[in-house]
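Page 47, continued from p. 46.
Same chain as before, 314 aa.
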Amino acid sequence: MKNIVLILFTVVLLASCSTEKKDEVELVLDTKSDLGEGAIWNYKTGELIWVDITGKILNFYTPKLKNNKEMLTGQMIGTVVPAESGKMMVALENGFYQLDPETGAKKLIANPEEDIPGNRFNDGKCDPAGRFWAGTMSTTGKRQAGALYRLDADGSVHKMIDNVGTSNGIVWSPDYTKMYYIDTPTRKVMAWDYNNETGEISNPKPAVEVPEEMGYPDGMTIDADGNVWIALWSGSAVGCWNPETGELLRTIDVPAKNVTSVAFGDDDLGTLYITTARTGTSEEELEKFPLAGGVFKTRPGVKGVEAFFFKGEF
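Result:
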């Protein structure tokens, strides 16, 4: 009898050790967006702001009201960041704009690629000093035709990185000494030395390399521990890496083929919101992922950091 009990205990122990706890992912919005992207949490208003790029839609989702407000922008919209003034800064198809979230009125600030009609703006975020960084990509499949730009509070624009394929996720380390940046086709997160006083970057080095079988790195956020969370295009998941060591710490499965962006939100910054896309998903794949294009959330047990706001007003 004693041996039987010991054997049963051993079986239960082995089973518990080999069973990995799965993060529960919950559908928030079944929008079936063609290209949901650009998630960011506005901690001042309690809203998740996100975009549908090709739908030309800017979204404001209030979790406490379970309400999503849509605003048409008239152009493809790559990303959005809140401004200290209460306005929004957006990277639209053809440049940086200031946008009034109440009326939708927008003002062109700068179009640094006016002479490159085949390009459009894509992802971006503000740095700790309140500068708006956003990058571009080709809409015709031209390789390394994009660039990463920095819009300062005075309206000046600076080209920071050239020969970019698809400009995507960008975050800054908790101590403000590193900028982590994704050019999607490279499957890498590059760590740049970052000067918060000047906005200059230097000495790029690979921090994370995403294995081919995991898909392509897309949007990215960072948690309070300094680990990066990356949406995996064609990977049906979000991955968390330690950028200091390059180690994959965990993955979270998402019921969509193409996962596009992530942002920590809610009052405690403990909810990870996840956007996805339907584009690039076959009819057969949509049968497997009928919720593709929706917005999801999970509670991963860690907390994010407050988003940086743009410091200028025009």
